[in-house]
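Q: What does the assembled structure look like for these inputs?
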Amino acid sequence: QSVLTQPPSASGTPGQRVIISCSGSSSNIGSNYVCWYQQFPGTAPKLLIFGSNDRPSGVPDRFSGSKSATSASLAISGLRSEDEADYYCAAWDDSLSGWVFGGGTKLTVL
Amino acid sequence: QVQLQESGPGVVKPSGTLSLTCTVSGASVDYYYWTWVRQPPGKGLEWIGFTYHNGEPNYNPSLKSRVTISLDTSRKRLSLRLTSVSSADTAVYYCARDRGGDAKGYFDLWGRGALVVVSS
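A:
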């Protein structure tokens, strides 16, 4: 069981805006930044969001992150078929002095 | 272009020791944290631990008694050693660069991963 909680699945149609949630606690999301990773089947995860709402160069601005209290969200606007992937949130946990991940959300583009 | 490449045995016997190496090319290993993350088949990601040149490693408490992570800066190689393995340790093991090693960090570069199966 993952320390951070994500819905196992999400879906949307092309062009829609989809939001994936990530719930934690005061020792992780509540006091630290959140990262988001995108993973396609059979490949390594790729950094999508860091610092809760910053994008590495090369990541489209259709992807955005936000955080409030002990929860975080990843929003994908203008959904495309190539966005179909697994998405993971992560945060530093002060109690564990280490990184914790969400269980992942499988995004399906209908 | 910075690249990370994991290597090691694909099969380890139960109760044996899993050993993997991650070779870094295209960049120095100094001044960065280097981490291991694993992913059991069909499941989510789990942070194993990280190390830093001239620094003490930091491990996931759930694995701390069995894991050792080390960094050979001259060879630019990151190593993972996991003892007393069981089927629960079957996973794809990734090495990654951590830009902070603390709450401000993030994993910006990843290797392609190495599948390790624990089986007799």
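The radius of gyration of chain B is 13 Å.
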